[in-house]
Amino acid sequence: MLWHGHCCHRGREDAHANREGFTLIEIAIVAAIVGIGAMMAVSNLQGWNRHNNFVGFQREVFSEIQEARSRAFSIRRQYRLTFDLDAETLLLERGNAGSGSTVWTADRATVSVPGGCSMDDIAWLRAGAGATPSSGMFYMVFSPGGDVYRLAGGVVTPLDTANIHLSNVLGETATVQLFCWTGKSRLSVGTI
Asked: Distance between alpha carbon 18 and the CA centroid of its chain, in Å?
């Protein structure tokens, strides 16, 4: 009986000993599961990356506005933000005077809109009238007194508000709102 039990046990070992590795079907199933998981991870990673690029761009536009206001006040010179809505860039420039500047010099590197993001338009108001340009150049002049003006055709006019509308390919929107009589700004999610 002992011999018979030993024999059966040995037979089972022989059956397992002949089986080496995994079958092709098992490997294919594992590869498919790993592939599906990788596709889902890459898709989520791309969306996350686009969202973070957009949030970073919002903060960068907001920061450039704050920087223009701060520098105009502390250095007692006009500063100008140049929005190129066609090239989707933003440039901070320093004027040559406290008012009536005629020469503008780049003060920082140009900020470019990251891939997947867009600078849609700038809605501005002055005494109840305004416009919403979505192409061309738009100039905001920050004075040492703290207020903000629009420069168009060589003429500087005061503004009440300016809303810079931003978006991305995920459908997210944001607005950098500038209160021009004080030069203060606010970053809001969504379009205002």
From this structure: 59
Measured at the CA of 104, the angle between CA 55 and CA 186, to 5 degrees, comes to 30
Contact 124, 62 (CB under 8 A): no
Please tell me the distance from the alpha carbon of residue 82 to that of residue 90, in angstroms, as a whole number.
6
Strand order, beta sheet including 184-189 = 129-131, 117-126, 161-168, 173-179, 184-189
CB 69 within 8 A of CB 183: yes
**Got the DSSP string for 21-53?**
S--HHHHHHHHHHHHHHHHHHHHHHHHHHHHHH
Model confidence over 77-131: pLDDT tens digits? 999 999 999 999 999 999 999 999 999 999 999 999 998 999 999 999 998 899 9
For residues 114 and 106, is the Cβ–Cβ distance under 8 A?
A: no
Tell me the C-alpha distance between 157 and 153, whole Å. Answer: 11
Read off the pTM.
0.77
